[in-house]
Amino acid sequence: GASGGDDDDGGGGGGGGGLYLVGDKATAADVAMAVTLGSYGGDLGPYPAVKSYASFQTSSEAYLKGTENLPSLAPRRKVPFDHANHPSLVKAVSSVFEEAVSAAFPDAEDHGVPPATAEKCKQLKLGDYQCNAAMSLFSKLKKAGALPPDVRSPQDVARAIVAAVPSDNPVVDSLEVNGPGFILCRAKASYLQVHVNRLISTGAVPRPLSAKKDTVVVDFSSPNIAKEMHVGHLRSTIIGESVCRILEFVGCEVKRVNHVGDWGTQFGMLIQYLREEFPDFRESGGANITDLTVFYKSAKQRFDESPEFKDASRLNVVALQSGDPECREIWRILCDVSRKEFLKVYDRLDITLEECGESFYNSRIPAVIEEFDGAGLVAVEEGGAKCVWVPKYRIPLMLQKSDGGFGYDSTDMAALKYRLGDLKATRVVVITDFGQADHFKMCYAAADRIGWVDPARHRLEHIGFGTVMGEDGKRFKTRSGDTVRLVDLLDEAVLRMETSLNDRIKEDKANITSDEVHETACALGYGAVKYFDLRRNPTTNYKFSYDQMLDTKGNTAIYLLYAHARLESICTKGKVKHGISVDDLVSAGKASVDVVHPSERNLALHIQMFADVVEETLVDLFPYHVCDYLYALSTAVSNFVNNCQVLGSPEMEGRLLLCRATAVVMRQCFDLLGIRHVMRI
């Protein structure tokens, strides 16, 4: 039967499509397909080919027969959920409802009802989590004529599910039915205690268990040689750094790539200008280029005004690409000078990158063009340009210009080939402004056409970001109309923070000395700039405002860092003034928190949400999910400190431990965002 069988047996065609059908009976292959497709619960991922294949199979007679046999031949295996050790709170809650549905409606699975799931409650004042399975379950059972006689509405289904939840379950309590059939619940304090106590004992935050350990190339920052990094590079740089940290946290092998613009026709004019204006460039090594912006503008002005200069520049491009020793030497000097300027920004922002610029791929482009040509995918346009057309786009990818030169399209295709092939990446993430989204979609579509991409293994993504604007709603520029240098922008944030901290010292409101002001101001200032950007959906524009980002109240890094420092201050006072050391309690095995007060419970609840937030972030790689969580956690900290006396209270030991647990989670969040935490402010 598995080989198709003879025509007389009804095999071969699978009964009108699908797998193999022997007579009117499903084969093991049919049942296996039913199990495989059914296990996805309707979530087949973003790939159209997979969805098309699944649609074809699930409409076949063979699949339908396999589904009929599924309950008896391949019942869903009930694996007990490890509530005490699994880091995901939402999955723990979901497991309770899944078991309750099976208990209340044993035949639900036979009628195609997917496993019940939970999600964060839309209105937190009503509950922590909610389950919406009752409406779907009622609809499917009613359609199948399988409703129990006493069940007449989704509310009845919800009440039956609630009744089937054992009161001694380890995860939830306070269950109630709301609206058309929503089931609301709260996490048990005893469940939260178990996980908070483990965090305190280990000193490590939990990591998602289901995260895929990919080999990921993250292409970010990518400034141009001989140009200063400006505010436009801010978003790619800090978003990319955070994306890398999040992926590394869950165990991915991350290759951080700085795809610098170190190749192209502009180098002809830069080489000529350096040769004419700084004839001693060999001795100086480019040290007399004190301002890259002025250098580039001056070269461009000369190029536009002088035909002789323009002709010489074009000859330099040919010489550079042909390997002329002097041109290559000047090119290397320009790259070195630029690299030193880039490092000023990267050092300030704690950015780690491995440079692999456009020039690296230049020698690889001809082989890529040859591969596309050999596959019959190259179209030769009028003038001799070689292009690749991809579906749904009116313009092609230009692999080779009519003059034989290469451009961005050819470079990016060679880069993609190298990353998938040589680097063995299973996930590629490119972070640029939103205007390049279509370009990368076309590159990915072309890679799919040529066969570089295996939908089951590879994931190609582009994170596009919006524009940083001034408070006037226009592009962020200096008063003279120039683009703002990123170094200057960062230094201004630190300068303002130094002024604020010195004022606090004068007013005796600070816990730092004058000698610590600069280091603290750097952490706060750079962190404020980063967080002000990262807390937003990257696809949106935003107005840059020092006053807003350096505010000590509201959703700012300053507020969050103050909340963390406040927790550490409480722990320090517990040791100095009350003789209770959190570290000693942990070392002695006395790390035990009792979650009793509502503010204690709320803080413990937020701590336990951490792993779910990281897993949510892995879907789109937008760091704002972590920012939203960190702000909610800091708000819970404020409520806890205001409502629960820690120092000198009968519950002091447990509450000091809860402070430490929260601080550990906050520090991990800061690290994922690339923000330096401070212990005192």
Automatic annotation (TrEMBL):
HAMAP family cross-referenced by the UniProt entry: Arg_tRNA_synth (MF_00123)
Entry's EC annotation: 6.1.1.19
Record's catalysed reaction(s): tRNA(Arg) + L-arginine + ATP = L-arginyl-tRNA(Arg) + AMP + diphosphate
Protein name: arginine--tRNA ligase
Entries under SMART domains matching the protein: Arg_tRNA_synt_N, DALR_1
One annotated GO molecular function: arginine-tRNA ligase activity
KW Ligase (keyword) present: yes
DALR anticodon binding domain segment(s): 560-681
SUPFAM superfamilies: Anticodon-binding domain of a subclass of class I aminoacyl-tRNA synthetases (SSF47323), Arginyl-tRNA synthetase (ArgRS), N-terminal 'additional' domain (SSF55190), GST C-terminal domain-like (SSF47616), Nucleotidylyl transferase (SSF52374)
Gene Ontology BP, a term: arginyl-tRNA aminoacylation
Domain Arginyl tRNA synthetase N-terminal: 91-184
Record family assignment: Belongs to the class-I aminoacyl-tRNA synthetase family.
InterPro entries listed in its UniProt record: aa-tRNA-synth_I_CS (IPR001412), Arg-tRNA-ligase (IPR001278), Arg-tRNA-synth_N (IPR005148), Arg-tRNA-synth_N_sf (IPR036695), ArgRS_core (IPR035684), DALR_anticod-bd (IPR008909), Glutathione-S-Trfase_C_sf (IPR036282), Rossmann-like_a/b/a_fold (IPR014729)
Cellular component GO terms held in the UniProt record: cytoplasm
Keywords assigned: Aminoacyl-tRNA synthetase, ATP-binding, Ligase, Nucleotide-binding, Protein biosynthesis
CDD domains attached to this UniProt entry: ArgRS_core (cd00671)
Annotated Gene3D superfamilies: Arginyl tRNA synthetase N-terminal domain (3.30.1360.70), HUPs (3.40.50.620), Isoleucyl-tRNA Synthetase, Domain 1 (1.10.730.10)
